[in-house]
Design goal:
Helix content: 40-55%
CATH superfamily: P-loop containing nucleotide triphosphate hydrolases
Low-confidence stretches: none
Number of strands: 7
Number of domains: 1
Mean pLDDT: 91
Number of helices: 9
Distance between the termini: 12 Å
CATH architecture: 3-Layer(aba) Sandwich
Length: about 190
Protein backbone atom coordinates (compact mmCIF):
# COMPACT_ATOMS: atom_id res chain seq x y z
CA UNK A 1 0.00 0.00 0.00
CA UNK A 2 1.18 3.50 -0.82
CA UNK A 3 2.44 5.55 2.11
CA UNK A 4 1.45 9.21 1.90
CA UNK A 5 4.19 11.44 3.28
CA UNK A 6 3.24 15.01 4.13
CA UNK A 7 6.09 17.46 3.66
CA UNK A 8 5.59 20.84 5.27
CA UNK A 9 7.35 23.82 6.79
CA UNK A 10 7.05 27.57 6.97
CA UNK A 11 7.56 29.87 4.04
CA UNK A 12 11.23 29.87 2.97
CA UNK A 13 12.11 26.74 4.97
CA UNK A 14 13.27 24.82 1.89
CA UNK A 15 10.34 22.44 1.29
CA UNK A 16 10.50 22.84 -2.46
CA UNK A 17 14.22 22.08 -2.63
CA UNK A 18 13.63 18.91 -0.58
CA UNK A 19 10.61 17.97 -2.72
CA UNK A 20 12.77 18.31 -5.87
CA UNK A 21 15.45 16.12 -4.31
CA UNK A 22 12.86 13.45 -3.44
CA UNK A 23 11.49 13.66 -6.98
CA UNK A 24 15.02 13.16 -8.35
CA UNK A 25 15.10 9.89 -6.38
CA UNK A 26 12.03 8.68 -8.28
CA UNK A 27 9.41 9.44 -5.63
CA UNK A 28 6.18 10.96 -6.98
CA UNK A 29 5.76 14.44 -5.47
CA UNK A 30 2.59 16.53 -5.40
CA UNK A 31 3.18 20.25 -4.87
CA UNK A 32 -0.10 21.50 -3.38
CA UNK A 33 0.72 25.22 -3.75
CA UNK A 34 1.41 24.83 -7.49
CA UNK A 35 -1.86 22.98 -8.00
CA UNK A 36 -3.74 25.58 -5.94
CA UNK A 37 -2.36 28.32 -8.22
CA UNK A 38 -3.60 26.44 -11.30
CA UNK A 39 -7.00 25.83 -9.71
CA UNK A 40 -7.28 29.53 -8.87
CA UNK A 41 -7.15 30.33 -12.60
CA UNK A 42 -10.38 28.42 -13.34
CA UNK A 43 -13.48 30.51 -14.04
CA UNK A 44 -15.42 28.66 -11.33
CA UNK A 45 -12.90 29.65 -8.64
CA UNK A 46 -12.40 33.18 -9.98
CA UNK A 47 -16.17 33.74 -9.81
CA UNK A 48 -16.23 32.48 -6.20
CA UNK A 49 -13.31 34.74 -5.27
CA UNK A 50 -14.96 37.75 -6.94
CA UNK A 51 -18.23 37.00 -5.12
CA UNK A 52 -16.43 36.69 -1.76
CA UNK A 53 -13.85 39.51 -2.04
CA UNK A 54 -15.19 41.89 -4.68
CA UNK A 55 -13.56 43.51 -7.72
CA UNK A 56 -10.79 45.43 -5.92
CA UNK A 57 -8.39 42.46 -6.19
CA UNK A 58 -8.91 42.17 -9.94
CA UNK A 59 -7.20 44.16 -12.69
CA UNK A 60 -9.80 44.08 -15.46
CA UNK A 61 -10.71 40.38 -15.50
CA UNK A 62 -7.37 39.12 -14.16
CA UNK A 63 -6.88 38.25 -10.50
CA UNK A 64 -4.08 40.30 -8.99
CA UNK A 65 -2.32 37.81 -6.70
CA UNK A 66 -0.32 40.52 -4.93
CA UNK A 67 -3.51 42.40 -3.99
CA UNK A 68 -5.18 39.14 -2.97
CA UNK A 69 -2.21 38.19 -0.75
CA UNK A 70 -2.20 41.61 0.92
CA UNK A 71 -5.93 41.34 1.45
CA UNK A 72 -6.01 37.85 3.01
CA UNK A 73 -2.74 37.97 4.96
CA UNK A 74 -4.01 41.04 6.81
CA UNK A 75 -7.25 39.32 7.76
CA UNK A 76 -7.37 35.74 9.04
CA UNK A 77 -11.15 35.47 8.45
CA UNK A 78 -10.63 36.35 4.76
CA UNK A 79 -7.76 33.86 4.54
CA UNK A 80 -10.04 31.14 5.93
CA UNK A 81 -12.68 32.01 3.33
CA UNK A 82 -10.14 31.80 0.51
CA UNK A 83 -8.90 28.45 1.83
CA UNK A 84 -12.50 27.20 2.01
CA UNK A 85 -12.88 27.97 -1.71
CA UNK A 86 -9.57 26.51 -2.89
CA UNK A 87 -8.64 23.62 -0.58
CA UNK A 88 -11.56 21.26 -1.27
CA UNK A 89 -10.67 21.48 -4.97
CA UNK A 90 -6.98 20.83 -4.26
CA UNK A 91 -8.01 17.78 -2.19
CA UNK A 92 -10.14 16.47 -5.08
CA UNK A 93 -7.24 17.00 -7.53
CA UNK A 94 -4.79 15.28 -5.15
CA UNK A 95 -7.10 12.25 -4.82
CA UNK A 96 -7.14 11.85 -8.63
CA UNK A 97 -3.35 12.29 -8.78
CA UNK A 98 -2.92 9.69 -6.03
CA UNK A 99 -4.82 7.09 -8.07
CA UNK A 100 -2.23 7.47 -10.84
CA UNK A 101 0.53 6.66 -8.34
CA UNK A 102 -1.20 3.95 -6.32
CA UNK A 103 1.57 1.45 -7.10
CA UNK A 104 4.32 3.66 -5.67
CA UNK A 105 5.51 2.57 -2.21
CA UNK A 106 5.86 6.24 -1.17
CA UNK A 107 4.40 9.48 -2.45
CA UNK A 108 5.03 12.96 -1.09
CA UNK A 109 2.48 15.74 -0.69
CA UNK A 110 4.32 19.04 -0.20
CA UNK A 111 2.12 21.75 1.32
CA UNK A 112 3.00 24.89 3.25
CA UNK A 113 -0.25 24.75 5.17
CA UNK A 114 -0.58 20.98 5.56
CA UNK A 115 -1.77 21.37 9.15
CA UNK A 116 -3.80 24.55 8.71
CA UNK A 117 -5.76 23.05 5.80
CA UNK A 118 -6.40 19.75 7.59
CA UNK A 119 -4.57 17.82 4.82
CA UNK A 120 -2.26 16.22 7.38
CA UNK A 121 -5.16 13.91 8.39
CA UNK A 122 -4.75 12.05 5.09
CA UNK A 123 -1.00 11.47 5.51
CA UNK A 124 0.63 8.40 7.00
CA UNK A 125 3.72 10.30 8.09
CA UNK A 126 4.66 13.98 8.33
CA UNK A 127 8.04 15.58 7.71
CA UNK A 128 8.51 19.17 8.85
CA UNK A 129 11.31 21.30 7.42
CA UNK A 130 12.78 24.00 9.64
CA UNK A 131 15.33 26.74 9.04
CA UNK A 132 16.37 29.84 10.98
CA UNK A 133 13.86 32.68 10.59
CA UNK A 134 16.39 35.11 9.06
CA UNK A 135 17.43 32.48 6.50
CA UNK A 136 13.78 31.96 5.59
CA UNK A 137 13.14 35.69 5.21
CA UNK A 138 16.24 36.11 3.03
CA UNK A 139 15.22 33.21 0.76
CA UNK A 140 11.73 34.63 0.26
CA UNK A 141 13.05 38.17 -0.35
CA UNK A 142 15.24 36.78 -3.14
CA UNK A 143 12.61 34.44 -4.54
CA UNK A 144 9.45 36.56 -4.44
CA UNK A 145 10.85 40.08 -4.83
CA UNK A 146 8.63 41.20 -1.96
CA UNK A 147 9.27 43.11 1.25
CA UNK A 148 10.15 41.95 4.76
CA UNK A 149 6.86 43.14 6.28
CA UNK A 150 4.79 41.06 3.81
CA UNK A 151 6.86 37.99 4.56
CA UNK A 152 6.46 38.45 8.31
CA UNK A 153 2.68 38.73 7.88
CA UNK A 154 2.66 35.47 5.95
CA UNK A 155 4.78 33.79 8.62
CA UNK A 156 2.37 35.01 11.31
CA UNK A 157 -0.53 33.38 9.41
CA UNK A 158 1.20 29.98 9.40
CA UNK A 159 1.77 27.59 12.24
CA UNK A 160 5.07 28.02 14.08
CA UNK A 161 7.89 25.50 13.66
CA UNK A 162 7.26 24.40 17.25
CA UNK A 163 3.59 23.66 16.52
CA UNK A 164 4.45 21.72 13.36
CA UNK A 165 7.25 19.73 14.99
CA UNK A 166 4.92 18.53 17.76
CA UNK A 167 2.64 16.91 15.17
CA UNK A 168 5.40 15.56 12.92
CA UNK A 169 7.06 12.17 12.66
CA UNK A 170 10.32 13.55 11.27
CA UNK A 171 12.07 16.93 11.28
CA UNK A 172 14.63 18.14 8.76
CA UNK A 173 16.81 21.05 9.83
CA UNK A 174 17.62 22.65 6.51
CA UNK A 175 21.11 24.15 6.59
CA UNK A 176 23.50 23.04 3.84
CA UNK A 177 22.24 21.17 0.78
CA UNK A 178 24.42 18.12 1.44
CA UNK A 179 23.44 17.87 5.10
CA UNK A 180 19.76 18.28 4.21
CA UNK A 181 19.97 15.58 1.53
CA UNK A 182 21.62 13.25 4.05
CA UNK A 183 18.74 13.84 6.48
CA UNK A 184 16.25 13.08 3.70
CA UNK A 185 18.10 9.86 2.82
CA UNK A 186 17.98 8.73 6.47
CA UNK A 187 14.25 9.43 6.73
CA UNK A 188 13.51 7.63 3.46
CA UNK A 189 15.49 4.61 4.66
CA UNK A 190 13.33 4.50 7.81
CA UNK A 191 10.10 4.98 5.86
CA UNK A 192 10.96 2.19 3.44
CA UNK A 193 11.48 -0.15 6.39
CA UNK A 194 8.16 0.66 8.08
Amino acid sequence: MTKIIGLTGGIGSGKTMIAKYMKSLGIPVYIADDEAKKIMKSNEVLNEIRKEFGNTIFDEEKLNNVKLAQFVFNNSAKLEKLNAIVHPLVKKHFDKWLLKHKNSPLIVKEAAILFESGSYKYCDFIITVTAPIETRIQRVLERDKTDRESILKRIQNQWTDEERVLKSDFVIQNSTIKDTENQVDEILKKLNNL
